[in-house]
Amino acid sequence: MEKDGYDSVAHPIGIFDRENKLIGCVRLISAPQPFMIEKEFACLLPQDEPFRKPLNMAEVTRICIKKEYRTILLGSSLTLGHLIYKAIYQWCLMEDTRFLAAVVEKNTTAL
């Protein structure tokens, strides 16, 4: 639903249910494209050294799983969260990406 200038250079990954409805997603942006952490979240970076962005780095943004699907197990212990991280890992292998950058927020309401 939300769009921004990063979408045109992003690599989206989605998880869909049996009715083909999106229930989880993540967006990956490869170097040398601009990263949100360099602009919108630059205030979170150390000010005494520059952000290093090798060509084999990607930024992870918009990790999302619909709330009602977050605790569902796929098999004995695999959740959709695990599945998204496995998809990110497989994408990194295919794209020869060795480093990831991400900004995360601690959700204190879920504790």
Can you tag this structure with a few keywords?
111 residues, globular, 14% helix, four-stranded mixed sheet, alpha+beta, Aminopeptidase
Written overview of the protein:
The protein is 14% helix and 26% strand. With 111 residues, the protein is α+β, with helices and mostly antiparallel strands. The protein has a single domain, classed as Aminopeptidase (3-Layer(aba) Sandwich), CATH 3.40.630. It has a 4-stranded mixed beta sheet, with helices on one face.
Structural topology:
Layout: E1 10-16, E2 22-30, E3 57-65, H1 80-95, E4 99-102
Parallel strand pairs: 3-4
Antiparallel strand pairs: 1-2, 2-3
Question: In summary, what is this structure?
Answer:
With 111 residues, the protein is an alpha+beta fold.
Note the total helix count: 1
Give start-end ranges of low-pLDDT stretches. Answer: none
Shape: globular
Q: Can you say what the CATH homologous superfamily is?
A: Gcn5-related N-acetyltransferase (GNAT)
Let me know the average pLDDT: 91
Q: How many β-strands, per DSSP?
A: 4
Q: Give the neighbour order of strands across the main sheet.
A: 1-2-3-4
CATH architecture: 3-Layer(aba) Sandwich
Instruction: Give the total of domains.
Output: 1
